[in-house]
Amino acid sequence: MNRIKLHILLTVCLLLTATRFTTQAQNVQMHYDFGHALYDSERGRAHWTSTVEMFRPDAWGNTFFFVDMDYTNDGVSGAYWEISRELRWWKAPVALHVEYNGGLNHIRNAYLAGATYAWNHPNFTSGFALMAMYKYIQRAPEPNSFQLTATWYVHAAAGRFTFSGFADWWREPGRAGDFAFISEPQLWVNLNRFPGIDPHFNLSLGSEVELSNNFAGQDEFRVNPTIAAKWTF
């Protein structure tokens, strides 16, 4: 999970939000990944991935980060994290955006800067954000690049279901061309929204589907689904 990035998943709390999974809270997710069973070249893919996310607004914008860790029988086999900061001290729904991405297993450091436009329904049942950024990929053969990102969320049936996610498209030459793409839509069933369940029982069950092309050394378009659980603090 690259949670875009996600990324990402709950209630948007500000008029302007631009995180993969926007909420004024923290959450921990655990995903069982089926990718290892779908592609011969993915046999070594980790079966389990945990994600920790945090979103915190303040008077000058918001801060978001997430950390992914992959697990095998021998322990942690991979790690990836993103952290971003949005700055806005005006009323227009546009913010300045800076971001860092990096991790283990030959994942290059990436530094991004640009702008975000966000829209939310007046009652925050749905919304989206669009980001256009310059991207510097450290030690890449062609380090100067760009990235376009979209994020979205929809809360349906009085909050019982949440559909959210992100899509990233950027220039980075690889085995399948000059551009890379990844999207990770998620669907959650929020148990505490159902009658008879304690509203403080913040467990959600659901799934994520990683859609990617020319990403992490791939030479084809791939679909990797998961089943997952999430606890929101």
Automatic annotation (TrEMBL):
Gene3D superfamilies named among the record's database cross-references: Nucleoside-specific channel-forming protein, Tsx-like
GO cellular component, one term: cell outer membrane
Pfam families named among the record's database cross-references: DUF5020 (PF16412)
Domain of life, source organism: Bacteria
Keyword Signal among UniProt keywords: yes
Sorted UniProt keywords: Signal
Signal sequence segment: 1-25
Protein name: DUF5020 domain-containing protein
